[in-house]
Amino acid sequence: MAASNKPTAVHYSLIFFVMLSIILGVTTYMFQKESSDANKREAAAKKDATDKNSLWTNAVNDMDAVKKQLGKQVEQVVDANGANSPNTLIGQLNEDIRKYGGTLAETSYSGTMAKLRQQLDTINAELASKMAALDASDKELRALQARYQGNADGHQKARQAAEADLRKTVDERDELIRAKQEVITKMTSEMNQLNVELEQEKDGREKERKLLNDKISNLVIINQKLYEELQTIKKETFDVADGYIRRVDNVSRVVWLNIGDADFLKPRMTFSVYGKETAGIGRTVADIKGKIEVTRIIDAHLSEAKIIEEDLFRPMSPGDAVFTPLWSPGRAEKFAVVGIIDMDGDGKSDRDLFKAEMAVRGAEIATEVDDKGNRIPDDVKIDESFKFMILGKIPDPTDAITGEEKATATAIMGHNKEMREEARIHGIRIVNISEFMDYIGYKPKQRLFRPGENRPFNLKSGAASTGINESLGDRASSGQTGGNYSRNKALPADQSGGQTSKLFGRGN
Fold it and tell me: Domain range spanning residue 275?
């Protein structure tokens, strides 16, 4: 059988081994070559490391030398997280630049040192200049000291001579003072004796003055008492009538007065009316026979007034005088008021109404004590220009309930005493509020009965007599009535003005 030309396993194995030998040979060569290169590189790296280590050692030694030279004993040179860290060399150098450089500090250490050196050189130059000037001044000072020492020696001799003269003068002065002191001692003794005598004289004069003041006070009290008694007995007054009634119309209850526009009279002025037989004007309320209110100004000296109140037994007639203290032609009268002003007898203050009525009539309240005990104004005193001092109700502190009421009552009493003294000194008449309202012809408004109020309201006079020719007395009823049932003052009198025949006298 002929041999086959196809490769066999032997061929493949041979080929494999050949290829493997080639590969192993190449690989071995490559490894050997790489090992040789690696050894070379290792030797180069070791040499480089040795060189770098030598450089590092030199750098560390140099840095230690720099630290020693700078006097800084820190391990770390710089901190990557902060250039100003105090634990690093750079941080401490920056701190030194800031601390010692001040305004001359630069961004670098050497720049700062250069600036400091430059500043130091400038200062040294100035110091050398000043030292030279100081040396010159010192030489001049020594020269002046030598000259002044000569002057001082001369002055010393002069001072010693002056001290000797001074001691002599002082001795002479002391002798003169001793002589004067003896005179002063003698005069002081005499003055003390005179002071004792003067004090004794002053004590005697003080006792005499006190005695005289006591006598004067007693005489003032006696004089005031006599004056009050005289006023009670004689009831003299210097007031004069403001005008006179010219005509009376009893039907229309109207009167005509002899005063008018030329006398500066104004409507709503009220007057009290006095009979022709009255001894004086404004003496007492008992002299008043009626009240009128001006309703119309007719002419220069003529006016019309309505009768607002009249005494049934003393009717108004021509020639009767009219008077009000509130009005004087051409000027406003001044008044002082103290106390609670109750115009209608209801126990309550009517101060606002009173002031309004005074203002309507042209009068001036120059000073007053209000319901709180305050004097308004407090700097106005009663003098001779005042017409009247009007006295309201003076509250009693013992009747006060609260502390405030007691303080108010005490204040009003104090002002009342003070104002009475002012009025007495200047001769100003003191009248109570009810008398004053009668003098000015004021008539309270119609009073109404209010449940719960304890206010008496007597009936008008006019009760029937029990007999003919019976003596006329007090006809006031003891009963009370509402104001709505009071008699209309516009109506004529209920009584006849005639006389009853004696044939019908009592007991016939």
Answer: 239-324
Nearest to 453 by CA among 338, 324, 296, 345: 345
Domain boundary among 234, 258, 273: 234
Which range (99-103, 203-207, 237-241, 444-448) has the least confidence?
Answer: 444-448
Number of neighbours of residue 475 by Cβ within 10 angstroms: 14
Backbone angles phi, psi at 155, to 5 degrees: -65, -35
Contact 331, 365 (CB under 8 A): no
Instruction: Give every CB contact of residue 448 below 8 A, 6+ residues apart in sequence.
Output: 482, 483, 484
How many Å apart are CA 331 and CA 200, to the nearest integer?
Answer: 57
Residue that is last in its domain, among 111, 132, 153: 132
How many domains, the chain? 5
For residue 406, pLDDT over 50 is answered with yes
Please tell me the predicted confidence (pLDDT) of residue 122.
87
Q: How far apart are CA 493 and CA 478, in angstroms?
A: 21
Q: List, for residues 13-41, the tens digit of each pLDDT value.
A: 888 888 888 888 888 888 888 888 888 88
pLDDT at 459: 46
Q: How far apart are CA 289 and CA 309, in angstroms?
A: 8
Structure tokens at 364: 């001036």
* Six token digits for residue 432: 């109570």
Find residue 431's DSSP bridge partners: 390
Contacts of 354 (CB under 8 A, 6+ apart): 337, 341, 343
Q: How many whole angstroms from its chain centre is CA 150?
A: 73
Residue whose entry in the numeric block shows the structure tokens 């006389």: 499
